[in-house]
Amino acid sequence: MSNPHASSVDNAAVDPAAASAGPAAAPTGDSGASAVADPVAEAVAAAQRQLAESQDRYLRLAAEFDNFRKRMVKERQEAEMKGMGVLIRGILDALDDLGRFAHVDPATVDAGTVVAGAEMVEKKLLKSLAGHGLEIVNPLEHPFDPALHEALTMMPAESPELDHVIAQVFQVGYVFNGQLLRPARVVVRKWQG
Predict the structure, then answer these.
(1) Which residues pair with residue 179 across a beta bridge?
(2) Each residue of 80-121: pLDDT tens digit?
(3) d(CA 137, CA 172)
(4) Domain boundary among 115, 132, 149
(5) Same domain flag for 177 and 111
(6) What mean pLDDT, rounded, does the chain reach?
(7) What is the DSSP secondary-structure string of 88-117?
(8) Residue 47 structural domain
(9) Are 103 and 141 contained in the same domain?
(10) What gap in Å lies between CA 120 and CA 129, rounded to an integer?
(11) Residues 125 and 60 grouped into a single domain
């Protein structure tokens, strides 16, 4: 009979089946390494999947941005063309008048009529362009402003009050919706006293 108070080590030694099963049941070095390698392989695979997803998302965003950029360029060009069409449509009447004016018979028209016709076409054209935001800069007898005027030459001022006042305008300037297209070319008075 076996002793119930005997230790399990003693029982294992007495039982040959338990003794032979003991070393076989113990984990080997290879299975421990594969248990550790599985989480590492899983982490590498997860990182590779995440990298592939990030690259795909990057490529999609880059393509979307490129399409957006192309669409914006196209829309800007269409808006410019539409704006130019509106401007051209506004000056067509003046252009028609100019065409009629250019084809009159010089033998039947006097110089006064020609000048009056040219002035009417100019007024019509400037009115149309003013409706689109064009302003004429004609600064005669106004103080010189280097932001709007280009001084071509100077002339002596008769009094200190006329110092830096424009005496003559060689060429008017133009401002379109607040943007200077061309400065007025002027002669400026300068006080020498």
Answers:
(1) 176
(2) 999 889 889 888 988 888 888 778 887 888 888 888 888 998
(3) 6
(4) 132
(5) no
(6) 83
(7) HHHHHHHHHHHHHHHTS-TTTS-HHHHHHH
(8) 38-132
(9) no
(10) 14
(11) yes
